[in-house]
Give the backbone structure.
Amino acid sequence: MKIISYGAAGQVTGSCHFIEIAGTKFLLDCGLFQGPTKVDLQNLSPLGFDPKEIDFVLLSHAHLDHCGRLPLLVKGGFMGPIYTTPATRDLAQLILADSASIQEKSETPLYTVEDVEKTMTLFSPLPHKEILRKGKLEISFHYAGHLLGASWIKIKTPDTCFAFSGDLGRYNSPFYHDPEPLGDDVELLLLESTNANKHVPSIQQGLEDLYAEIRQAYLEQRTVLLPAFSIGRTEEVISGLSKLAFLKKDDLFRKIPFYVDSSLAHAGLKVFHEHTDLHTMDPRDLQSDNLHFIATEQSYALDKSTEPKVLLSASGMMEGGHILHHAASYLPQASTLLLFVGYQGEETLGRRILEGEKSVLIGKSPVEVNAEIKEIKGLSGHADHEDLMAFLATASQLQRVILLHGEAQNMTVFEELLSASLRIRKAQHGVDVLENWNET
Ligand SMILES: [Zn+2]
């Protein structure tokens, strides 16, 4: 057996892991590298293996950093099935089509809308917990609690049983079911470690903090900029705040105009309404009179508006999307409140603003940052230290853990802690992590 990472090894993007078991070759995810230019450039590098030799793909969830290189794989000659849950298939269709339309406008497009259409014909939906038999392998998808349809994946071989966490969500989330237990057969785990060294407040606390900030900003007649993933984070923020306003009988909060500037978010909302068994949000909280999904042509007009409001737009790390022109207009204004509600990757525009840069380049134009900048910590969609420890505790036979999807400094501390009771390795790009790893 071989496990070789071609992404998300020592970094939090580009999830793609090549597995070979007795001649069967498959991938866990095939995600896009997302971030600043030098990270984006990794997408232009060869995949690291021959796509024609890959028998199938197992896709954990629909975020672009997990599915965004699938069309490249297909362009390279991959013809096999892409197994994932029905909800992930539905979301991936929207996210990949959006990605292709962005790619088609870039100087070095990786793929086209046609490539995505061809890719979607290879998707083969597999409901949660159903067992798929591929030769001598038994494969099943289990709730990961990170996004609609998101799963950790169990693979049983004749010799062992291993699991891939994908991105793991939080326990006690108001949005999704808890991650399912790993059980009594998983011996080896490929584990994401984005927040492995962090102690993050509860999501409920994050929502209360966000609610209080927005309410106060409205009373002060300010504009709140909220960069967020179009799909998932938008639904979570809207439903969480709407529920709080309902419970608090807060008529003032329900008057605050929320503008969602993302056609992708609007399309994604429909998928959340179609898969209500996979999330714990009340569908009534996903629609309200003060919620406005705006079309692209209205987007620039909002930059001139002085009414107090919340403007929610992608991308979550401010590396593209409509949030950029809103930021160019609103960041110079001291009355603006920029609220980060998600993880900001290394060297992204979001991270640099969060770390205090007072002048940033947006496109080719310098923009002064006079806005107030705050971070709401509880809303991360990734398991924190306690969540990861709780997840690990659900595996009674676990012996070995491979750490993926984490920045180097986060993983070292976590690695040392786990190594007291488990055997730990960190994935390295292009290296078989199992090589010379004594199994006794
Ligand atoms: Zn994710």
Notes: Residues 61, 63, 66, 146-147, 167 surround zinc ion (CB under 6 Å). The chain has a mean pLDDT of 94. The CA atoms of residues 402 and 425 lie 5 Å apart. The longest strand covers residues 137-143.
